[in-house]
Amino acid sequence: MSFEELLDLASRAVGGSVVAANDEFFAERDNLVNPWAPTFTPRTFGAKGQVYDGWETRRRREPGHDHAVVRLGAPGHVHGVVVDTAFFTGNYPPEATVEGCRVTGYPSPAELADADWFPLVERSPLHGDTRNRFPVDARRLVTHVRLTIHPDGGVARLRVHGEPAPDPHLLPDTVDLAAAELGGRVVDCSDRFYGSPGNLLLPGLAAVMGDGWETRRRRDGGNDWVEVRLAAPGVLQLAELDTSHFKGNAPGWAALTGGGGEPLLPRTRLQPDTRHRFRLTHDWPVHGVRLDIYPDGGLARLRLYGSLTDAARDELAAPWTDREAGGG
Known about the structure:
Distance between the termini: 29 Å
Number of strands: 22
Radius of gyration: 21 Å
Largest sheet: 8 strands, antiparallel
GO molecular function: allantoicase activity
Pathway: Nitrogen metabolism; (S)-allantoin degradation; (S)-ureidoglycolate from allantoate (aminidohydrolase route): step 1/1
Number of helices: 3
Protein name: Probable allantoicase
Enzyme class: hydrolase
Structural class: mainly beta
CATH topology of the largest domain: Jelly Rolls
CATH architecture of the largest domain: Sandwich
Oligomer: single chain
Mean pLDDT: 94
Shape: globular
Order of helices and strands: EEEEEEEHEEEEEEEEEEEEEEEHH
InterPro entries: Allantoicase, Allantoicase_dom, Galactose-bd-like_sf
Number of domains: 2
């Protein structure tokens, strides 16, 4: 599996933000973590020149380099980084370095400057108008990353793909065990023609229909489905199946089963453009869930609220208590 199939831990969709940059003269640092693909409209000029959908610094006339610091929306283990220079052709950085650190709480930019930074991507060449991909050895827990460009220029997006490692001390007794920001992940699905099934597990409400998962129209008498690996094993208590924005294309019915095939929610009628909540009454822990929709259509979000087992909570705590693995 490509590391790009893992969650983008830096994306604003999961709460990532750019907390500092030494320069953003031509284009704002915040664009680095926008979840959508970068765009470009030729001959669109502002007061400082051509408008770029990315982060761009002024031309350096003295030795040095530029940098931007990103707080990950979901701390975790980084498996790969993409430094996307889309549409930057004569003004991209020739080289870049990416570092990580682990700092608990909510440090200021000044405090982050003094953090124990360690390399994720050694100084490496970049190509213009390219998704520059760098695999990372994911041994250490990361809460922040620092992108350094040598010496200056523009980067459209910074993607930091990996596996979330939520701090169990901050988790309530009941939590959405399917949430992507906690480590829930889609492992298989029948169809993703109109929308990615991973959207089902993103935080917040879908803003438009395109923020959800939608399949093509079935003509074979079957049904569509998606399989979710929970962030950790737990006893599920409540399911939310949200068809918001899906009006003429919502599924007619849905059902939930555990990873071992045990029934959690029998085939149940759904309504268009509605947040449905269903109480679940089983009392055994599950590791994964399969959602079947009948016969096809789209959903905005899937929430699976439950309580972690004691063993699962201990497992989640391991990266935060192992200082050598976690760094910092």
